[in-house]
Each structure stands twice: as C-alpha cells, then as structure tokens.
Amino acid sequence: MSQFKVGVVGLGQFAPEFMDLFQSHPHVSEVYVCDVVGERAERVRNDFGAQRAFTDFNELLDSDVDAVAIFTQRWMHGQMAIEALKRGKHVYSAVPMAIEVAEIEEILRLVRETGLTYMMGETSYYYPAVVYCRNQWRAGKFGRFVYGEGEYLHDMTDGFYKAFQFSGGENWKATASFPPMLYPTHSISNVLAVTGSYATSVSCLGFVDTVDDGVFDKNVSLWQNDFSNETALFTTADGGIMRINEFRRVGIAPYRPEVRLSLYGTDAAFEQQTDAVVWQTHDGYEDVKAEVTAGRSDAPLKSDPRSRTGVDAALVESFTSGFAPVHDTSVLPRQYAGLHNGHEGSHQFLVNDFVTAVARRELPPVNAWVAARYTVPGIIAHESAKQGGVRLPIPDFGDAPA
User: For the chain, is the Cβ count within 10 Å smaller at the N or the C terminus?
Assistant: First the structure.
C-alpha cells in the first residue's frame, strides 16, 4: 500500500496537533475529519484543507477511508478501535488503549485475525529520557534491571479543569474524575519501553481526594472514583520492581517535566527530577540534561488551540516542543522539516511510525501487544486500590506475533 486515506476522529484540543503531520506524510493520500460537533468538523476541515468532514463515526467507517486516528474521550478508545477493526480499518489510537481488559483482548484478537495495523500513540515511548535510557539499555550499560520509577504528575490546576470542561460540557465533573490508573501509559511505558519487559503483579494505594471542587467525588464520578492520586508497586517479568505514580493533586511546578523516569540497574542508573537529569555508574556521575531536553518548536499551527474558548494556554505550550539531541530525526520524511512538533519531540515520530507500519505492513513499535503491556497493569492497579492495596496478578497476552 503505497498511499492510503486516514480519518482523524475527535477534533478537540489534541487532534489538530497531528493534522499537518498526517497530511504531509508521503504515504497518506487524503485526510478526512470526524467530530460529533459539526461546526468543529467543518472548521478543522477548512483550517487544514482536509478532503471530507463527517459528524458520525459509522459514516466515516462506511466511507473509503483506510485507517482511523482516534482522539476521542479516553474511555471511548477501546470500543471505537474494536468497531474500526471489525470494519477493516487500520487504527491509531491516542492513549489509553482501553479501560477494560476484555476490550484489550478483543483488539488483540481482531488484529491477529485480520492482519490490520493497530498502534497506540504513546508519547513517552519517544520522550528524550526514554530514548536515552533505551539506547543505554541496548548497549548493555545498565546491567541487570533492579528498579524503575515512572511518574505522570499533572495537577488539575495545570490545564485539566479547562480541558475537561471543554470536552465534557455541563456534566464535565462526572468524567474529570477519571481514575488516574486508568490513564497509566505515560508512566508505565517510561520503564517498560526501556527494558522491554512486562508487569506481573501489583499492589496499589489510592489517595482519597478532599478538595472541595466536586470532581473526585464518588457521588458525582461516572466511575464512583474518589482517588485523585494512585501509587502502584509492580513486580516485573525480569525480576525487577517498578513503582508508578499517577497524580492529579500534586504541588510541583507544571511541565518541569510532568512525565519523569528514573531507572536503576546493577551497573548504572539514570535519575530525572525537576531541572536535573543524571547518568551515573560506580565510577561517578554526569549531567546529561542537555542530551534529553527538547528545544522549542516555533512552527505554527494552522488552527491554534489557544484561540478556542476554554483551552488553557499553558497546556498548549506543553505540546510545543521540538527535538532533543538524542532523537534520530533521519528516520522522518523530509516533508516534516519545519512542521509543528510536540510533547518533547514525539508527535512526528508517532505519525511516521504508524503511517510507515501501515504502508509497509510492519508492526509499529507500540503495537497492540506492547500497548496491552502498557495499559493492562494500570487497570489491575486501580482494582487493587479499590480493594485497599491487595496484590493482584496481571494477565499478559504475550509478544506480538512475528
């Protein structure tokens, strides 16, 4: 398949970040857009010059589109991916993969049976700190894995109130209470995208929220969730231990960084905290912050989210990063030169890896089996938290087929 058509679904704050990247890729012939808000669909179609606009997902699937890129509400991804795969469409999905293990099992079954491409758009896989550690790991410099920490520290005041209000309407509090461990992939993939292992068991504790804003309130929450923060301790298949923090009430400086990785091996360690990144061995340590810091991206968006009502400017600023020295940009198409990039240099790699995988009939890096290993542990962790921290086994669905 030298060229194919892509339908971008869910045109809120995030999807427009990717429109130029899909349209500019040499393997994409046309881009369609789809949103239940017709005015929004038409605006994005006009802003980016997309070929067709839809207001119904099923109508998009009935069209001649070959693949869909799903950017809808996070609890909708699993069912929409399943429907698209059943209708013969390749799938790119924003995180998380799904919020139920049964949905993930069904996605794996459909991908295996159809041979269609599924990729989860996990930004952390391409974050400079993760790329740096993965390179060091593959070079054998860490030794045996001992312990890793992955954290997604995003306070509600750092853009989340406005983001949920924008997407959730007048009943936004019911969904703003989304359980933190059901959105686990930014933090879990920090560690597992380096070692390539998977989680085997978990004990998780939840922090019961007491802020009087009506968000993390069991009586309001669609998930009867009152945990604003969750901390999980996992065992991993390679004999190590992994601690994961998913925090929505935390007093730290925003975006400095909000996703953090520390990883310890028998021979070396990597530590990332606010304004500090260190690589160390038995012989000493060195500051590697410059290697894993993405520069500013000055490329403009055709449709700037900051111009839209209810969109937080600081949240948008967190998307507008360029590349870090550790990124290998030689794999990207020349058509991407000068285009907008975001989330610590991940966006261009995300789209390119998906489009290339579809065109070449190859497995993308974060394929369905890898995505399951980044998502399922969080689902089980939240169940553990609801049971007061009881240790639970984590099902694993194996490696991707050759």
Answer: C
